[in-house]
Every structure is written in C-alpha cells, then in structure tokens.
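Annex B. Sample input.
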Amino acid sequence: MIELREVSEGQFVWAKLKGYDWWPGMVVPASLCTHFTNESDSHLCVYWYGHNSVSKVDQSLKMCDFLKGFPKCFTKNKTKMFKFGVFRAGRDLMLMHKHSENIDVCDKEVYDWILATDPRDVKTEGWKLSGFVQEQLKLLSMRFSSKTDVQTSTTGTENASNNVKPKLCFDLNCCLSCESSDAGAHLDHPIFEKKKICCVCLEKLKRAYFVHRVDDSSGSISCLSNEASLGLPLRNGWRENMLDMFHQKQHPNSHICVSENHVSIFSFSESQNAGAALCLHLEEMAGIRKFELFLCDQPSRGSDTKDVMDAHNFGQAVTECTITYLGRIEELELLYPLVKIEYYVASRSDKGNADLGSFFFHFFKTISTKKGCKWIFQMPAPYNKGYVRLISRFLECEPGLWRNTFSTENFTWTNERSLLRVLEEPEVL
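Annex B, continued. Sample output.
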C-alpha cells in the first residue's frame, strides 16, 4: 500500500468505497474539481471513471497503485452512487491485472474469476466465502474433473452424447459443416460446445460471417435468432441459430456468406454515423468497397437504418455494405472467433458525456482482449476537460480532431496511423 501523498498527479489508482466495490480512478489536483474551489491546490482527489465529478480523499488514508496490487482504501464520500456498468468494467480490469490471491474480494468476484480458471488451482485460504460460493466451488471442481475424465476415458463419446441438447441432433463424430467423418481432422471449437468441425471448414469459417435474413421494410440483416425473439437466452439461441445455418434444416432463409477482401467494423451503440464515416474514409484512402458493419444495439427508431445507409451512399456510388445488428455485446464474443474484425469504433451521441467514463471502459475492455485490432474512440463536443485528460493519459496518446459530414466534430483517439493524416490539431481546451 502507498500513502496518498506519495502518489503523483495523473497516476491511476484503485480505491474501495464503503458499501461498494473496487473502482478505478485517476489522482487529480483539487483545482480541477468545482466542488472544492475553496481548497488548496495541493489537495489531491480521485477522479472516478464513470462519473462526472471527483471525490476528495483524506490525506491520512492509504491507496494503491493501479499496477502494483489492489489493497483496500476508502474515500470520505460514503454515499455516492455508481453505475453498475462501471463496477463491471473495474472488476474486469482488476482480473486482467490480477494478483487475485492477495485481495480481499467479494463472493461474486471470486466466483467469476474461478469460472475462467481451473477450480482445482484456486487458493482460497484466508478468504471469507459464503456458503453459496463454497458450494459453487465444489460443483465447479466436480464439473471440471468430470470434463477431464470424459476427454481421457474410452467411453468419452458416449458420456459426451448425453450432454447434447435433444433439439440438436448432429452427429458428434462428424464435422458440423461438411459432415465428413475423418476423426483425425476434427477440432473442438468453443462456439459449438462439444460439436466438432474439421480444419478445412474452420479455415472457411474464419472468412465467413453469419447472417439471418429478416422480413422488414429496411432490408437489414440481423444475427438475432427466433429463439431470442421469443425471450429465450440470447447467447444459447444465437449459437443454435449458427448451427442451423450449417445444414439449413430449420431455417430455410439462413445461410453462410463467405466474403473476401472486405473490411469488418464493430461499432458500439450510438456510433452509427462514426462507423459510416469510417467506411467512407477507408474507401477513399484504401479503395475498399466491401464493408460488414456490426452495430451493437438495435436502433431505437426506424429512420436510424436509413440514416446509416444514407451516410454510406452520400455523394458517391453505392458502397457494398452489410449492416448487422447485434442485440448484446455477448454476440460479438460469439462472432469474434469466426470473423476478423479490423476496426472497433466507439462514439457517444451529442446528448452529453455524463457517463463517458463507463462507456470508455466498456470499450477498452473489449479492445484489450483483441490483440492487433485497430480502434477509434471519439468524444463529441461539448468536451469535458477532465475526461480528455483522463483518457489521453490512460491511452498514452493525444486526441486529434475528426470532422465529417454526418456529425459534429469529435476528439478522436486512435492507433490507426493512416487516420492520423486526416485528423486536425485540436485547439487547447
């Protein structure tokens, strides 16, 4: 643990608010906060991600460095409400940098961490775990051991067959795509649970994207399955929909489209225009005319689809663009092993940046798991000076000014070098 007076301005820290859980923040001088205008500039505060203000911290309390572990510390403000999305983002970052065996953590964090780990390797000495979590630990350990036994025993195929859902009657010994029975060429794939796919078809899938046509006036394409529209779990329904696409047994309009020499862009919610502008830029700079634009969240009104298409077609010939609406971010996780997404775009609407911190961490969590991806993060006016500073220091790069026909100017952070040529130098805030 480190004393607050030992940290420097701009340093990222973790802090624990009473009644809540771990939250990432940045140490800033009190002069940045309008709430403490009468305080000396020497006082330091924590600028909380996901909230448009800072919290004063007692000089005598201890904090922790962002990259050196996660001991407890408390702020003086015991009543501030934080969005659940920020908690999730902070927790996921903590797990990314985990020294988890040294942290006094809550039950849910322990359980979520164990789900991504071998439960038999988890050391829980000194942790105060509820009876529920202790029971979950036992179940997870048994499930992991059972899965290992199935893989190594001679009756593994028979045991695995018992776990297949009745409605999915595919032969476990055959490739899902070509239905060949050459066992030596088969690979397990996480998207298809215990089903198998051969090496040749897996290579095809890496160049493929799944679509399910829907009858609507806009002619858009959706990845949502019939199961999801009926209110069943979206993740399971979507996976089953993909399985159906291989054989086209239940959904005659479902199919696999293989497209080469195209660019796939994942655009976070409220980023339709940003994604469209990026398509235009890539077409002009690199001559790319085929785009697959994934939009997270179904548009709230019918004109949104038309707005996106108008943006793509603005002032030039029609660009070949497939627009896919994803209902939740989890669908991207299912899609990612099969589709190479070159660009990730995030931009808030002009409604304001009150929850920009939460939105940024949601975006950063996604791109941090996709090595080598190109990302663009935009902040529309009016600019929040604290957030500009916070995001710049976290990403270790300064923003440029992005102007396009379809939206107001945006501060833009990116790791794509070709875009730097079209970004203008922003005025000093």
